[in-house]
Design brief:
This protein is of the alpha+beta class. It is globular, with a radius of gyration of 15 Å. 20% of the residues are buried. Helix content is 31%, strand content 23%. It has a five-stranded mixed β-sheet with strand order 1-2-3-4-5, with helices on both faces. The chain has helices spanning 12-20, 33-42, 85-99, 114-122, and strands spanning 2-6, 47-52, 55-64, 69-76, 105-107. It has a single domain (2-108), classed as Gcn5-related N-acetyltransferase (GNAT) (Aminopeptidase), CATH 3.40.630.30. It binds coenzyme A (COA).
């Protein structure tokens, strides 16, 4: 049975493995264990996993700057896709944001990731095209 719970510090190894199973998840140096712990400390009520028994089969990292919400690294294990799990994880983040009276959610999606764009459109997100770059210092 699929269950949902908040992400924990001890989940890092399993979640990293899940991320690495998809080329669609682009990992940065800030996705190391230290970055994960910091992110989770700051956003502990907005990060969730789905489990099947002991196994983590999906995860989402939500965050907020208290102006709007952000979603990072949503992933559902290949064998569990198209069962409503991704949608449920997004809804958990939205519920957490609503408690803070926030209604906007920003998701940065690679324009070439057609499947994730279809997914977000299907669950009601509106697409804004923004060209942006990183500024290094
Ligand atoms: C995108 C992803 C999270 C979707 O998860 P999922 O659990 O399969 O999605 P759901 O089952 O909740 O789907 C919700 C709706 O979107 C639709 N949908 C899901 N994937 C879709 C796809 N690839 N193309 C078109 N529609 C899709 C479903 O059919 C469903 O529609 P319905 O409510 O009318 O039945 C999953 O495919 C994934 O992990 N992809 C790889 C990682 C990735 O790209 N992450 C995003 C990084 S920004």
């Amino acid at each position: 049975m699929i269950k949902y719970r908040k992400m924990r510090m001890g989940d890092y190894k399993d979640i990293l493995e899940l991320y690495k199973s998809s080329e669609k998840i682009v990992l940065y140096s800030t996705d190391d264990k230290k970055g994960y712990k910091l992110f989770l400390t700051k956003n502990k009520d907005m990060c969730f996993v789905a489990t099947d028994g002991d196994k983590i089969i999906a995860s989402i990292q939500g965050a907020t700057d208290y102006k709007r919400g952000y979603i990072h690294h949503l992933i559902v294990h290949e064998e569990y896709r198209k069962k409503g799990i991704g949608k449920k994880l997004v809804s958990l983040v939205i519920e957490a944001l609503k408690k803070l009276k926030l209604s906007d959610v920003v998701i940065l999606v690679n324009n070439k990731n057609k499947s994730v764009k279809s997914f977000y459109k299907k669950i009601g997100f509106q697409f804004l095209t923004v060209n942006f770059g990183y500024v290094e210092w």
